Amino acid sequence: MTQQTRQIVLASRPEAEPGPENFRLEPTTLADPGPGEVLVRVIWMSLDPYMRGRMSAAKSYVPPIEIDAPMNAGCVAEVISSGDPSLAPGDVVYGLMPWAEHALVPAREVKRVEPGAAPLAAWLGVLGMPGMTAWTGLNRIAAAQPGETIVVSAATGAVGSLAAQLARRKGMRVIGVAGGAAKCARAVQEYGCHVCLDHRAAPDARTLSDQIKAAAPDGVDVYFENVGGKTLEAVIPRMNVHGRIAVCGTIAWYSGVDNPPPLPPVWRTVLTRRLRIEGFIVFDHYAHTPEFLAEVQPLVAAGQIKWRETIADGLDAAPAAFMGLLQGKNDGKQLVRIGADPG
Ligand SMILES: NC(=O)c1ccc[n+]([C@@H]2O[C@H](COP(=O)([O-])OP(=O)(O)OC[C@H]3O[C@@H](n4cnc5c(N)ncnc54)[C@H](OP(=O)(O)O)[C@@H]3O)[C@@H](O)[C@H]2O)c1
């Protein structure tokens, strides 16, 4: 028996900011699961900034999505029929799936959700890829230490909000950077930032840099870099000797809107301050997921970690929600609710 469903494919490649014309919602039919496959009903779908890169033909760390192929995303889903002995109907799993209401996926490429450990959507956020990214950048890349000062950009986002909280729990001085007064207030009240600076209110990098200096008179030891653009330009002059920059993301440049600043002034500071700058992609560190979960899962269970979600309802709403994410309209983890949680 086949399964009728709907999916969203990449209709064309965006030149700059993606628009509705770049996506197409279409019906499709899925076959019964073959050996090693499971047919799932998608419950939650995660939207993440890296998807903008996959819409472009430019070479990157993952291949581009082909035109007319489905977009894909981290999803939580319920197995409705299984061709693999390791999974049965009713099991809830998470993994990479198409933007769709149902999907046929290899059983070995999904993980079973630990029942009752956390709300299901948390496996796409604080306990999932963004959470692991925050933990990795802070610990494995920046080697952040108690007593140091850290700047976290996109400080209320899925990655930044956990990075800020883990940094605060380590005993660091935490300076957040976020867009708008409401997000900045939340960064301080909920995510453990001592101070949060509004990059949208600062007219230029110089102003933001002066604000960072006032907030961190002894300089910055670690920069958790999520955005590039004006914020990066502002932070670099404030870095201390032997400072570390964990380059996690550069969302300001993803749509080619805010061009990279000229390199030379920054480059000389790297030398004079003996900075260590390291880019990382979370999937290279997945072998360390048990260490991440051992630290963060008990904190989540005890209610000691806070997070927010922005939820779009239904597959049809995904393109607009994704465009909003790239413009900072989301507040915390951007999700799409595709189906009901299992009853
Ligand atoms: N390296 C990896 O393996 C890895 C894994 C996951 C995510 N990432 C990266 O980590 C970063 C954060 O991801 P996330 O999932 O936590 O996203 P997110 O924070 O939920 O959403 C992106 C946020 O970026 C901010 N932003 C957008 N345009 C900006 C601009 N021009 N200048 C400054 N800030 C801007 C907005 O917040 P404001 O309103 O506060 O400006 C927006 O809400 C992204 O760059 C993403 O690509 C990397």
Automatic annotation (TrEMBL):
It comes from the Bacteria. GO terms for molecular function: oxidoreductase activity, acting on the CH-CH group of donors, NAD or NADP as acceptor. Gene3D superfamilies: Medium-chain alcohol dehydrogenases, catalytic domain, NAD(P)-binding Rossmann-like Domain. Keywords: Oxidoreductase. Residues 1-30 are annotated as: Disordered. Residues 19-336 form the Enoyl reductase (ER) domain. SMART domains: PKS_ER. PANTHER family: PROSTAGLANDIN REDUCTASE, PROSTAGLANDIN REDUCTASE 1. This is Enoyl reductase (ER) domain-containing protein. It comes from Gemmobacter megaterium.
